[in-house]
Amino acid sequence: MNRMEKLKEFLQVNPQDSFVQHALALEYIKIGDQGKARDLFEEILTRDPGYIGSYYHLAKLLEQLGDNPSAIQWYEKGMAAAKNAGDNHAYNELRSAYEDLTY
After folding, report:
1. What is the number of alpha carbons within 13 Å of residue 65 lying toward its C-beta?
2. Among residues 90, 101, 54, 94, which one has the least CA distance to residue 75?
3. Nearest 5 degrees, angle CA 5-CA 26-CA 84?
4. pLDDT in tens, 56-97
5. For residue 30, what are the domain limits?
């Protein structure tokens, strides 16, 4: 069983596992299925806005898709969530990517 199949199997047991959904979204990016990756990241962050790691990956994906306005919005939401969580490392990563895109 490959990695993607295993992750899907885990999601059948616990469909709202943000960690597994995030890992599956990254696998979709690897195979070039940005649509499914985007859907998973957005589902995670709608349900669990405190899942900080997905903000960066979603915003980067949106940048690659040429949707800079949406990428900027997700970077901003991610910075706010990281700040609220006291996660300075994630905040700085998000801020750096945001500044690269906006300046």
Report:
1. 19
2. 94
3. 125
4. 999 999 999 999 999 999 999 999 999 999 999 999 999 999
5. 3-102
